[in-house]
């Protein structure tokens, strides 16, 4: 990632799955340090059903994005439907803390598919603000 490209962070929401994937593609394209390098894409669902499950998934994400790559284009962690990670009050700070632990060369994208009503929880609003405050794309 070049110094002028900004952090490889994003939070995207909407009802167009194709458009959401293209937004993640833009983050992946920014991550390549050398021509021809591509980021490894790693996906995880954020649909945790308990605080313990949320903590386990957050730890897995932190493991993937927390170490800078020695070779190659790094890892882009794509978290689909992050609501399950953000809903547990004791875990909210930890989800936000992930953003500060993304090592240079790696990226983190949250993708939220909206329902037909377009409602978002306060926890997801806070998470998207945290991404924006860190310089990530919305």
Shape: globular
Strands of the widest sheet, in order across it, are 1-4-3-2
Could you name the ranges where pLDDT drops below 50 across 5 or more consecutive residues? none
State the helix count: 5
As a percent range, the share of strand residues is: 15-25%
Task: Specify the biggest β-sheet.
Answer: 4 strands, parallel
For the CA atoms, what is the radius of gyration?
14 Å
The pLDDT mean sits at 84
What's the helix and strand layout?
Layout: E1 9-14, H1 17-31, E2 40-45, H2 51-65, E3 75-80, H3 83-86, H4 89-100, E4 107-113, H5 122-133
Parallel strand pairs: 1-4, 2-3, 3-4
Detailed description of the structure:
The protein is an alpha/beta fold and about 140 residues long. The protein is built from five helices and four strands. The protein has helices spanning about 15-30, 50-65, 85, 90-100, 120-135, and strands spanning about 10-15, 40-45, 75-80, 105-115. It has a four-stranded parallel β-sheet with strand order 1-4-3-2, with helices on both faces. The model has no long low-confidence stretch (mean pLDDT about 85).
């Amino acid at each position: 990632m070049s110094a002028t490209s900004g952090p490889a962070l994003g939070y995207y929401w909407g009802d167009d799955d194709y458009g959401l994937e293209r937004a993640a593609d833009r983050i992946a394209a920014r991550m390549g340090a050398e021509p021809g390098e591509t980021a490894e894409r790693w996906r995880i669902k954020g649909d945790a059903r308990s605080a313990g499950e949320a903590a386990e998934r957050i730890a897995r994400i932190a493991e993937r994005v927390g170490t800078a790559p020695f070779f190659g284009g790094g890892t882009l962690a794509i978290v689909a439907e992050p609501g399950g990670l953000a809903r547990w009050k004791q875990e909210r700070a930890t989800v936000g803390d992930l953003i500060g632990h993304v090592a240079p060369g790696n990226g983190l994208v949250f993708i939220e598919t909206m329902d037909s009503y377009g409602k978002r929880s306060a926890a997801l609003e806070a998470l998207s603000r945290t991404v924006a405050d860190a310089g990530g794309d919305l």
